Amino acid sequence: MLEVINDFLSGKVLIVLIVGLGTYFTLRSRFVQFRHFGHMFSVFKESIRGTAGQLSSFQALMLSLAGRVGAGNIAGVGLAVTLGGPGAVFWMWVTALVGMSSSFFECTLAQVYKRADGDGLYRGGPSYYIQHGLKLRWMALTFAVLLLVTYGFAFNGLQAFTVTHSLENAFDLPVQYTGIGLAALLGLVFIGGIKRIASVSDLLVPVKTLAYIAVTCYVIISQIELVPDMLVTIVKSAFGLEPAFAGLLGSAIVMGVKRGVFANEAGLGSAPNVAAVAAVKHPAAQGVVQAFSVFLDTFVICTCTALLILLSGFYTPGFEGDGIVLTQNSLAAVVGEWGRVFISVALSLFVFTCILYNYYLGENALQFLVGRSRAALLTYRGLVLALICWGSMQNLGTVFAFADITMTCLAFVNLVALAMLIKVGLRVMRDYDDQRKAGIDQPVFDSAKFADLDLDRDAWPTNPVADASNVNVAHGLAQSHR
């Protein structure tokens, strides 16, 4: 019964919501993800500089990538190609293109309605912009409960199972020992709170991402002469024009969109929780950065995995096996047996940072529900670590199916809220665009212009001080208007 419900919700309802509303946001914003595409790289560069005592935009990006760049980029892509053929990759790209606009707005709104937590840090996310933007407390509480159950508990147990069994297959390590070791390492990170989680993500996310891209790019470059024809095959297969994959057209669309959504998480309402923690000058700047993370996740990392599989010579239509096996065997077919070990190690790093990300999402939801209760926080940490130990030794297929359902409900609540708050998102976007058109390199958010909104003045003061270059530009504009 869970599988039937899950197939309907995540295989049909979620696809329509993600693609439909993502397209709507794209059109209403005048293709914000395309207009700001070149700007994304300059904002990313600027995001590395932070403020002492606060989390930088770059750290928030690394936190979101910790969750976006996970098992879905290895196993998920392999599963999509197995069930949908090469055409599934094209529909993953389409999903990411429209998802970039959803990510822009959900992360911008998370910044707009964030709250200062009293320690020089911030909290925010869909629960916060639903409560303070829509004034729907019940809806905000519903989202927080779904987030806590889905990411805080269920997905952490599943991730623990994935990594311990991958290490058992690669190194013959007993799952009970790796499960306890994983819990111990995670416990040390949890104790340090969001700052230590961000610091660990700063270190591990670039390492795991660059190492994985480097190895997959080696495979791609070694067969570069085959890449143009393979890209043509991907596009033709997406529309049923490749004879070998003509029968997979429906599966290509469904699997491409579904795995694309789960890989980059655009619109699901998870990334805004970490996007809100950054100290930035304008909410839209974080929206631009997070849209860039969707691009990096799908167009770079997922594409690397797909080309690795399709160029290896191992994959054939009708392959039977899971996504991890397909990716491992594809790399091993090109570089030798060490490729299987590399995939297991890469997956371990991906899963470790994913658990950190999932833990923080649950912690953020818990604080929204019960406030800053140390007893509740310690209980939550203990339950998560216990679930990691238990989940590392159990097949949580039923729990995963249940979590898929709650995550679809999570996305539904978030996307409905985004549609209801689109006018606010567009106002903030236009404020950002107007300042950039005026020659201001780093737009500044003045909450006095948005006095009708329920904003936290500690997070967004009125008449903020801009940097010297922005002041000079603004002064020149004022003189010209006179």
Task: Indicate the topology.
Elements lengths: L1 H27 L3 H4 L1 H11 L9 H12 L2 H14 L2 H26 L2 E2 L5 E2 L2 H9 L2 H35 L3 H17 L1 H30 L4 H12 L10 H16 L6 H5 L7 H29 L11 H13 L2 H33 L3 H18 L5 H24 L1 H16 L30 H14 L1
Antiparallel strand pairs: 1-2
Helix pairs in contact: 1-6, 1-12, 1-18, 3-14, 4-10, 4-14, 4-16, 5-12, 5-14, 5-15, 6-11, 6-12, 6-14, 6-19, 7-8, 8-9, 8-16, 8-17, 8-18, 9-16, 9-17, 10-14, 10-16, 14-15, 15-16, 16-17
Can you put this structure into words, describing what you see?
The structure is a single chain. By secondary structure, the protein is an all-alpha fold. Helix content is 76%, strand content 1%. The protein is built from 20 helices and 2 strands. The chain has helices at residues 2-28, 32-35, 37-47, 57-68, 71-84, 87-112, 126-134, 137-171, 175-191, 193-222, 227-238, 249-264, 271-275, 283-311, 323-335, 338-370, 374-391, 397-420, 422-437, 468-481, and strands at residues 115-116, 122-123. The chain has a two-stranded antiparallel ribbon. Helix 4 packs parallel to helix 14 (283-311), helix 6 (87-112) packs parallel to helix 12 and helix 15 (323-335) packs antiparallel against helix 16. The protein is globular, with a radius of gyration of 22 Å. Mean pLDDT is 83; it is low at 467-482.
